């Protein structure tokens, strides 16, 4: 687990273009999709590589960063788009765990806290409510805004649970 890490961009797609390969922000002479990525590197080192994804799979791989990245992994599995991220853990246990060797790389691509936040966690993880959200320090004006913040915090709470799994 990395700590003190800063994303080079404010959105996932741009970040992933430089995150898992030899590409970098300053040098764009070779397109990111022509660079070796983490799947290639670990496979070359003798690892079994697995990509488990809980986000929507784009049918046109040429337009989807995650499809292009995952193509370099030995096994790729997409869960049903819209499922909670627990689906990744369940899929890992049902389909991957028995295949693990002595050297493995398993990448989990979560939905995490993408909008709509209220859809990112099961009801049992609705720990925070609008009454738990203060107005101070936030740019919120009413209880509807507070509910959005509470849903976001609950999505983080749920993601923390998934990461512990």
Number of DSSP helical runs:
5
Q: Segments where pLDDT lies below 50 for 5+ residues? A: none
User: What fraction of residues sit in β-strands?
Assistant: 5-15%
Residue share in helices?
Answer: 25-40%
What structural category arises from helix and sheet content? alpha/beta
**Annotation, overall tally of beta strands:** 3
What is the count of structural domains? 2
Strand order of the largest sheet: 2-1-3
GO molecular function: hydrolase activity; phosphotransferase activity, phosphate group as acceptor
Protein name: Sulfatase-like hydrolase/transferase
Domain Sulfatase N-terminal: 1-164
Organism: Helicobacter mehlei
Explain this structure.
- The structure is a single chain.
- The chain has helices at 12-19, 38-44, 65-70, 86-96, 143-164, and strands at 48-53, 75-78, 104-109.
- The chain is of the alpha/beta class and 165 residues long.
- It has two domains: 1-111, no CATH class; 118-165.
- It has a three-stranded parallel beta sheet, sandwiched between helices.
- It is globular, with a radius of gyration of 18 Å.
